[in-house]
Write a structure and sequence with these properties.
Layout (H helix, E strand, L loop, with lengths): L5 H50 L23 H14 L1
Length: about 90
């Protein structure tokens, strides 16, 4: 007993070919749009940074750098006390 007739196999092949073509097309268009958007964001950040540096030429040499977009967070709970608290929770169980 055959699982698929000859016509069904041909239709399945056509479907897989069309699905592959549309998948590749979708990937290319999406990738192009994402890269274009990232380039625009980076260009805007560069323009804003250059304008900020023209207004504040000493900014890169300050201790607390306002240009950096990486937040400096201090630990709320020290590691040792967090570990001892975890141990206390386990011992209470």
């Amino acid at each position: 007993m055959k699982l698929l007739s000859y016509t069904s196999r041909i239709q399945l092949r056509y479907f897989m070919i069309l699905f592959g073509i549309f998948s590749i097309l979708f990937y290319v268009v999406l990738n192009w749009n994402v890269l274009r958007n990232v380039d625009e964001v980076l260009h805007n950040r560069k323009i804003n940074l250059l304008a900020y540096l023209e207004a504040n030429p000493e900014a890169p040499f300050q201790g607390d750098n306002p240009i950096s977009n990486i937040p400096k967070k201090k630990a709320i709970v020290p590691i040792i006390s967090a570990a001892s608290r975890c141990g206390a929770i386990i011992s209470n169980l």
